Predict the structure.
Amino acid sequence: MNRILVTGSQGQLGSDLVTTLRQIYGVEQVVESGRSPPHSENNFYLYKTLDVTNHQQLQTIIEQEQIQTIYHLAGVLSAKGEQYPDRCWDVNVNGLRNILEAAKTYQLKVFFPSSIAVFGPHTPKLDTPQITVEDPATIYGITKVTGELLCHYYAHRFGVDVRSLRLPGIISYSTPPGGGTTDFAVAIFAAALQHGTYTCFVRPETRLPMMYVPDAIRAILDLMAADPNSIKIRSSYNITAVSFSAAELVTEIQKHLPHFNCHYAPDFRQAIADSWPAVIDDSRARADWGWKHQYDLSAIVVDMLEKLSQRIEVTSQKPAVRS
Ligand code: VAH
């Protein structure tokens, strides 16, 4: 039996991760949690209200539900973090500290999502190495550097089995974007299908590392299933799938929606995107535990348009989605 707690379960990654974990381990083994009430009533009994900054609430759930593994996804993302820096620090750092303290006390296994946001203006932009300059320009990035250092400390000082990935921008269709800088690469798809047009908040030449959510879920599960001896990095692994610019994404969408057009109106998120790498070297993840992405840009666009077409009212022309 592997009783699992997912924090931030209603977020972009959480909702897809819960579905996959329940397919693997059974619905009863996976407890969702979040600060707000559950979106859907159909599994209310497997949802716990949890503010990860409240260590007593966390301990009560761990003991009542006999949790053995925590996928700790609760967090404040980069753009929202710049608007609410105190909350970002409290949730992302004090919340993680509570998770790691509980993992030490109850011998739990933990997944922690770090981010390419740990890198900053002086980090090499191309083939960003696993070990390099980390001078993040956002409070979110600062919390992720701090989080990685905490993970490394708890792993080596207390033997906590905590594992982590520096996730790139994640593209998904099951939940609306939640305050990230890479959200343009998520919102653009619904806008293209519903309105035939999108106003992008970064410049066309802005190139960032990205990953489709099925690849991200598989990476997380492969990392957590890997032999502990193969996990040589206990801060956080570089990981990526593809890198593309906003303009390249638009061109790929237009192959299926020829009338789609995109306007550009860069806002405060441009400076955040400019501080991040364009291409990541994830050779250590590929060497240590066999990471290999499956979705390139073309496959992401085909699947996103197909999945979203089934879920939203398509007012612009149906995509001539070619496989
Ligand atoms: C964000 N989606 O934009 C997250 C992620 C690399 C980006 O950390 O804040």
